[in-house]
Amino acid sequence: MKTSAKRRETQRLRRHRRVRRKISGTAERPRLVVHRSSKHLQAEVVDDTSGRVLAAASTLSSELRKLRAEEKTNKTALSKAAGQLVAERARAAGVTRVVFDRGGYLYHGRVAAFAAGAREAGLEF
Description:
Helix 3 (75-92) runs parallel beside helix 4. The longest helix is centred in the N-terminal third of the chain and has 19 residues, at 4-22. The termini are far apart. The model has no long low-confidence stretch (mean pLDDT 93). It contains four helices and four strands, in the order H-E-E-E-H-H-E-H. A hairpin with a 4-residue loop joins strand 2 and strand 3 (52-58). A four-stranded mixed sheet has the order 3-2-1-4. The protein is an alpha+beta fold.
């Protein structure tokens, strides 16, 4: 019998495969993919046609270390800051429009805060 955590991860992977059948990143509009763990969030801007990562950011990034060190910063605020960071890096790489791949996670909480941060920093979804 599967544990509930294993079952949830299996369900998330099924949702992610279903979403990926419909979403693919191109050179004009790469894919912004999100991975969420229990403590952190990672994101990459990927051109699927060439298989290249154009920009990446994480809540573990050194730029966010000062924000992480503050006592009152929660995971949602860090996720929003990571969204702004990946948007800045993507714009530096010449990307302004992306396709958002939520990775099978619900568009809620940290994933939604990440997307809001990326939009505020200038990425179009």
